[in-house]
Amino acid sequence: MYELLADGLVNIVQAKYLLPLFLGTLAGIIGGALPGVTITMTIIVVLPFTFGLDPLQGLAAMTGVYVGGSAGGLVTAVLLGLPGTPSAIATTFDGHPMAKKGEPGRALWIGVWASFFGGLLGGLFLIGATDPLAKFALQFGPWEFFSLFMLALSMVAGLAEASLLKGLIAGAMGLIVTVLGNDPVMGQERLTLGIPFLRGGIDFLPVLIGVFAFAQIMGEIERRGAHSLATEVNRSVKLTVSHAKVIWEVLSRPFQLLWCSFIGVLIGVLPAIGGSAASMMAYDQAKKFSRRPEAFGTGTPEGIVASESSNNANVGGSLVTIMAFGIPGDAVTAVMLGALTIHGIQSGPLFISQNTQLAYGIFAAYLLAHPIMVLILALGARWMLRAVTVPKAALFPIVLVLCVIGAYALNNTMANVYVLLAFGVLGYLMVKFGFPLAPFILGVILGDQIEINLVRSIMTDSDPWLFLTRPISGALLGASALSMAFAFWQHRRMQRKTPAAIGGGTDF
Amino acid sequence: MLAASLFLFVLTLELKPNPLVPIGPGFYPRLVLGLTAVLAAALVAFDFFGKRKARTEDKANYSAVVLHFAVFGVYVVALPWLGFRIATLAYIAAANALFEPAKSAKGWLRVAAIAIIATVVVYFLFERYLSVLLPRGRWTDL
Prior knowledge:
The complex is a heterodimer of chains A (508) and B (142). With 508 residues, chain A is mostly helical.
């Protein structure tokens, strides 16, 4: 394993991989720092640039976006009190008060170094756990895969948003998208409604791009109005610190760093519960374990370490799920899954054994993205604040043009652009009517695989009880039922407590 | 959602079974559509019989949203006719100008400059360096 990782590192430091990794990390940091532009939107924008690259170049760029974006959100969270990404919300609780007390540099760099160490701890898990988990998944038959996908879908539907019923309907809507067009087992035409384009089915990438880009951009326009899309900032802050001192401040809390990174990894492994949930949960845990819980919220370094270490470790956990099982942990890994598909690479348990060089290249890119992220922030944290002043009125149309290119270039057909627009409208309406996007997208991504494994299992043995009597399949379906029951109980409890508290969302 | 799933469900009844796959191509869609119809019906029932929540004051700017969807829709329709270069130039300029109307000649110049630079950079980057072919216009051949 170490030999393969060393090979991966030697590979990734070549200029042809290092440049996309650097540019991806830079794009991620800028996208993460811009309030209103999430990591998902950044990776959607970066996607079309990877079409002409080889798979490792493209995935290195995307890994850079993911790592950079997870750290980039802290720049504006600390210095402006505006979290650039949802995963940086908890960073504002202590980062911004510390900056306001006259220590903006210390606040920023505690966050950066906590992201760095948290991310590397997540990387250890990613490298150590992916291969054994993939080998475990190789024992799966169609029954187990069907049950695993059902577990992922039910968890996302149950935990994602306010209404359990709406979560389930959103997941079912995603599955409906995949039943339009030829059936994936025998290729027989079905439900094409007389539209020739539907014969080939609907690609999930234009759906994902449309749903997320429009839901986010239109949401921004709707909230801010058309004429106030620019932000004013003060760029004259001093950010110089003694890095040795700051690193010691982070490393002198080994238990907190490890525990919060562990929470981040664990949340990352679960589909669709992303960095924002991880950082909030880690922040809460750090407060509970702290000797001075009353200091939280006033500018304590512990709060920043908790939030930032967990949200970067979360990236490692998310990558494990997609590389071992082929299930995207969030929207960013869903786009990465799409990039793999474009290059004809199948993700899932066989991915690491069939594409060893690529898999270890991704591990190496992940590890290397962290020092690159520190370097970029060291050189240009102040410039990131300048990025915030980019007028959104000019930025958003350009982002949508890049979305069009991303959809069009998949098959060089306008039909995908029409799909982008149609699902953009649908995504916006879903958000307006309180339907979560995460189960919908996961349904679109997993729909074909769910059908293939269901049909295969029934063709192999028509006994439906096998789904329950095969130990792993039964356990997965049991976990799925438990997750639904838990979600039902949680929603009831929250409804009783305070109806207004229900809401929030996932990072999918 | 209820109507759409029921409509598609009816269509699945017309699907012919495949001799090689005993459960046929309609089995899974019927399962999904049936489940969706049941869930949608439950949502309708809950909405109808459940407690009505007080509506909070909505200050959202829907006209800007509709406007942007409309402009983007025109762009998407125009793309195959005008080609990427002309349609994108016009779209970026129009969207930018509609969102943040320029107040002076300098402002209009900035809108035009952003549209031209963005279109040229994106076009050359994708066509020349990333080997991505962008739509050509049937009317303009550009």
